[in-house]
Design goal:
The protein contains 11 helices and 11 strands. With 309 residues, it is of the alpha/beta class. The model has no long low-confidence stretch (mean pLDDT 86). Magnesium ion binds next to helix 2.
Length: 309
């Protein structure tokens, strides 16, 4: 759906291959309870903890059209609320006397609602992904929306200067922890107005099922890959703990090779090193990469010796 020629609205649809395990169902149930109680929710957690996917899943369960915004350092209030864009031009051509051409032009700036205004006006679900990547002042217009359910509109817009937020409007936020690069500290006032749910790393069963679903591999292969990745995470040698994305990538690469992981499979070892060693270090320093590769070799050897496969 396209509104005002500028804003694209997504239709709520169940996500393909979305995995629901007891671990995830518990998070979903709590989030829906807070939404029913009238609170916006905020999923906060490390990269790869499933925040965006969960936000979209919950939006699809709410069933209203979805407006999505991705936080951006360059954002200003007008990127969220709206602003004056382009010109509307009217032209009158008076050619009553065919030899004389008389033209009259009249142009005025056009107000265009942006996504937050559209969601508030029509009662859509707003998914504001990584909202702390926007500068805090760009997010100020959210404060009265979440507290008083009013949106202040700049005077340039024709009308009352404010908008009553539609009763069906719901907001779902996601953010990475503050220590990540490019993240602003979320304003206390904004955080106070939402229920923040800290996302833990997935449990093992959830990781296995997601890897299976997203890569289309057998459960046994998914379980082996997840076992190695979880071992690497706990080894303490990684600058960045490898995430579920690493499991999915390794599994997809293995699928290209028919998916079975036999003991002594040199290609499996190589794929794990390529994908997981780069995911786990920021600058790719030689010592760091060497440590991760050694830890990986140790984990794969131990799994082979113990007969885990
Ligand atoms: N419940 C789920 N079912 C199926 N796949 C999932 C599920 N949760 C997460 N995933 C998959 O795991 C990966 C990471 O999830 P997602 O992108 O939601 O994480 P994120 O927390 O938003 O990460 P980032 O902070 O980097 O944006 C994606 O490939 C996603 O498709
Ligand atoms: Mg995300």
């Amino acid at each position: 759906m396209v509104l005002d020629g500028m804003t694209t609205v997504l239709q709520p649809r169940p996500l393909p291959n979305f995995v629901v395990t007891p671990f995830l169902q518990d998070v979903v149930d709590r989030a829906l309870t807070y939404i029913a109680a009238g609170f916006p929710i905020h999923f906060r957690g490390a990269s790869g903890s499933g925040k965006t996917t969960l936000a979209m899943h919950i939006a699809s369960l709410i069933g209203r059209p979805v407006v999505m915004i991705h936080g951006d350092e360059e954002f200003s209030t007008s990127d969220l609320v709206g602003g004056e864009h382009g010109y509307r031009t009217r032209k009158v051509i008076d050619n009553f006397i065919s030899t004389v051409l008389k033209t009259e032009e009249d142009s005025s700036r056009q107000w265009v609602d942006n996504r937050l205004t559209v969601a508030c006006r029509y009662g859509f679900t707003l998914v504001y992904d990584e909202f702390t990547r926007s500068r805090p002042e760009a997010n100020n217009s959210l404060l009265p929306v979440l507290q008083e359910r009013m949106l202040d509109l700049p005077s340039a817009r024709n009308g009352d200067g404010y908008l009553h937020v539609h009763p069906d409007f719901t907001a779902i936020f996601t953010s990475n922890p503050e220590e990540y690069a490019g993240i602003y500290r979320s304003q206390d006032a904004l955080r106070d107005r939402m229920v923040t749910m800290d996302m833990e790393q997935f449990d093992e069963e959830t990781e296995i099922q997601i890897t299976q679903a997203k890569a289309g591999v057998e459960r046994a292969a998914a379980a082996k890959i997840v076992g190695i990745v979880r071992g690497l995470r706990e080894s303490g040698v990684c600058e960045f703990a490898p995430t579920i994305r690493g499991c999915i990538m390794v599994a997809r690469a293995m699928r290209v090779r028919n998916g079975s992981i036999a003991p002594g499979d040199g290609m499996f070892r190589q794929i794990c090193q390529d994908i997981l060693a780069s995911e786990s270090s920021r600058g790719g320093s030689k010592t760091q990469t060497f440590q991760v590769k050694s830890a990986l070799n140790g984990l794969i050897d131990a799994a082979e010796v113990s007969g885990a496969w």
